[in-house]
Design goal:
heterodimer, A: mainly beta, seven-stranded mixed sheet, four-stranded antiparallel sheet, globular, B: mainly beta, 59% strand
Chain lengths: 109, 125
């Protein structure tokens, strides 16, 4: 079973700042099987990034993903007010077939 | 545009069966994998099961003995049953579409691109 660990648990930043979120896997994850989601209160998760670095439809280019093997990063170049939310990483392919990290909460400083 | 609409009770008694349905519009359920996910304070986001058809179903090993998922192609909807529920099954339940996409690299990518609105299910007597 692949375990995903996200850091930090909480990221306190101001609008306009750069956010760097980390996700580490306990085993190598195929890059094409790695994704990021954003979740706001009262809403389902929203796909941001798939295949490690591909933005989903309608996602602004301030969001970018990178990484390989066991270390993956989501970067938000300049935080907008609507970006304060919880972010989850996700891997596919290892039992259970699909699993998520515990999340990073981005809050206003 | 794909839309997933969840239905089902928000309160289930301990030891009984939780049943939820996800109605899909904008896509044929025969063409994709469909997924049930739940979110709880203790376990975060957790896969419950995936289904493509009766022969292509995948369950979370930790829940497999209590879970059943099915498709109703005539209604374009899919369903979840979770038996013998306890307080630990109290969670926000989501249905979602698992999408496979071919990347420029030639590799396939798998992700959840459309989600239901969520159903808060509380297990309590």
């Amino acid at each position: 079973e692949i375990v995903l660990t996200q850091s930090p648990v909480t990221l306190s930043l101001s609008p306009g700042e750069r956010a760097t979120l980390s996700c580490r896997a306990s085993q190598i994850v195929t890059s094409s099987y790695f994704a990021w989601y954003q979740q706001k209160p009262g809403q389902p998760p929203r796909l941001l990034i798939y295949g490690t670095s591909n933005r989903a439809t309608g996602i602004p280019d301030r969001f970018s993903g990178s990484g390989a093997e066991t270390d993956f990063t989501l970067t938000i170049s300049r935080l907008e007010p609507e970006d304060f939310a919880v972010y989850y990483c996700q891997q596919y392919g290892s039992s259970p077939l699909l699993s998520f990290g515990p999340g990073t909460r981005v809050v206003v400083k | 545009q794909v839309h997933l609409q969840q239905s089902g009770p928000g309160l289930v008694k301990p030891s009984e069966t939780l049943s939820l349905t996800c109605s899909v519009s904008g896509a044929s359920i025969s063409s994709y994998f469909w997924t049930w996910i739940r979110l709880s304070p203790g376990k975060g986001l957790e896969l419950i099961a995936n289904i493509f058809d009766r022969e292509n179903t995948n369950y979370n090993p930790s829940l497999e003995s209590r879970v059943s998922v099915s498709l109703d192609t005539s209604k374009n909807q899919f369903s979840l049953s979770l038996s013998a529920v306890t307080a630990a099954d109290t969670a926000l339940y989501y249905c979602a579409r698992l999408r496979e996409k071919l990347l420029r690299s030639g590799e396939s990518s798998y992700f959840l691109d459309s989600w239901g609105q969520g159903t808060l299910v509380t297990v309590s007597s």
